[in-house]
């Protein structure tokens, strides 16, 4: 019996993500919470003939929505409009994430918390620091969802190399993405050096990296003020949640370990990663190993296949990431 609660379930990501979760054989209860419309969305989904029971909760029923949840997914918050950076969302979304995480700690203390709300590089530190303050922080249970970067990195790699010879499906183990989730902090790492050489040889490496780093802007521009990626994000969020659900149910993952933006010091492999990258950063996205749905180890194997170009991109990433992380930490620490 596994309960998943979606906070922000009536939004652009929340609705399709809830639909995908309703299709999951691992979900027995799907609880939808939003400031508006969640009961309506839940009633709609509840007519689908899959086993999960789907219930919606009004604004003042967050405790009930969270009660006993094994996984809490947070896509609540405002999205970007053209001309904005993810950091511009911090003012509004930091408070939303802090309040929702506080409620999750009170009503679902054993839940894994999946943070989608942007800016992830700062909202994850907000979530972790909030939990630390409450004495409720468990490092392996808080994950920033960066899966969309991996989905894009695979799609764009196939595009760059030529989809006739390099199909999108065949790219699933060819590339991962580490670092953070905004602009220069997004670092695609090619796991097959031959593919990197091909991109470099065809002079497509720089444009490929740029497209992965700024793929979010492409969608924001194309939606002309109506928001950012929702459908591709819902799929990415579902893939990530599915890995956790499979791990809870002792099933093998069906894809290579996905990265998550996590707090390094509390997790095995975190100190090794810091040492190998020569950094003190406390938060970083890297592929994670799960046990019973919790992050138990940070994978560092990808470091072995790094090329000089990726090392340079990583240095830029680490320089930028720190400011994002400190902003999140300061936000929580400044509140009494
Ligand atoms: P949206 O505006 O369509 O939906 C957000 C929903 O959150 C709304 O239904 C709103 O009512 C709800 N909400 C706001 N405050 C809430 C609160 N306190 N409690 C419960 N619900 C609340 O936005 P969206 O397109 O779904 O995007 C949501 C967030 O996800 C944005 O911050 C966006 O930047 C981010 N995002 C992240 C990624 C990623 O890769 N991590 C990808 C895409 C979007
Ligand atoms: C994305 O990468 O699509 C999301 O982070 C949304 C955004 O603001 O770009």
TrEMBL record:
Keyword presence, Amino-acid biosynthesis: no
Family of this protein: Belongs to the LDH/MDH superfamily. MDH type 1 family.
Domain of life: Eukaryota
Record text on subunit structure and interactions: Homodimer.
Species: Lachancea dasiensis
Active site per the UniProt annotation: 181
Binding site for NAD(+): 8-14, 34, 93, 116-118, 233
PANTHER family: MALATE AND LACTATE DEHYDROGENASE, MALATE DEHYDROGENASE, PEROXISOMAL
EC numbers for this chain: 1.1.1.37
Lactate/malate dehydrogenase C-terminal domain location: 146-331
Reactions catalysed: (S)-malate + NAD(+) = oxaloacetate + NADH + H(+)
One Gene Ontology term, aspect cellular component: peroxisomal matrix
GO function term, MF aspect, one: L-malate dehydrogenase (NAD+) activity
Occurrences of domain Lactate/malate dehydrogenase N-terminal (ranges): 2-144
Key words, A-Z: NAD, Oxidoreductase, Tricarboxylic acid cycle
Broadest EC class assigned to this enzyme: oxidoreductase
Record protein name field: Malate dehydrogenase
Pfam families: Ldh_1_C, Ldh_1_N
Binding-site residues, substrate: 80, 86, 118, 152
GO BP annotation list: fatty acid beta-oxidation; malate metabolic process; NADH regeneration; tricarboxylic acid cycle
